[in-house]
């Protein structure tokens, strides 16, 4: 169980950091927010991958396609986060 939590944090950090690098503009957020966006993005990417391809976690927990899906999901979550943040400043 502890290994799963550590893996989620590491994958979340990697996916969130890559998403922040790929999305243009400056994002003022902490490392904790980056990890949370990466973890939520992993769930979003996994859900989208399941809907599109019909694969689930029984095919293996850590796969390259899962990491790519995590990054894509983190980009989606980051764009939604930035869009919601810009609406608050009105």
TrEMBL record:
<feature type="transmembrane region" description="Helical">
    <location>
        <begin position="30"/>
        <end position="53"/>
    </location>
</feature>
<comment type="similarity">
    <text>Belongs to the UPF0410 family.</text>
</comment>
<dbReference type="Pfam" id="PF04226">
    <property type="entry name" value="Transgly_assoc"/>
</dbReference>
<dbReference type="InterPro" id="IPR007341">
    <property type="entry name" value="Transgly_assoc"/>
</dbReference>
<keyword id="KW-1133">Transmembrane helix</keyword>
<keyword id="KW-1003">Cell membrane</keyword>
<keyword id="KW-0472">Membrane</keyword>
<protein>
    <submittedName>
        <fullName>GlsB/YeaQ/YmgE family stress response membrane protein</fullName>
    </submittedName>
</protein>
<feature type="transmembrane region" description="Helical">
    <location>
        <begin position="6"/>
        <end position="23"/>
    </location>
</feature>
<feature type="transmembrane region" description="Helical">
    <location>
        <begin position="65"/>
        <end position="84"/>
    </location>
</feature>
<keyword id="KW-0812">Transmembrane</keyword>
């Amino acid at each position: 169980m502890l290994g799963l939590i550590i893996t989620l944090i590491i994958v979340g950090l990697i996916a969130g950091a890559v998403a922040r690098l790929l999305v243009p503009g400056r994002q003022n957020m902490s490392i904790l927010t980056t990890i949370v966006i990466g973890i939520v993005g992993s769930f979003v990417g996994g859900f989208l991958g399941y809907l599109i391809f019909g694969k689930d976690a029984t095919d293996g927990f850590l796969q390259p396609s899962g990491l790519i899906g995590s990054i894509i999901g983190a980009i989606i979550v980051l764009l939604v986060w930035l869009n919601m943040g810009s609406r608050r400043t009105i």
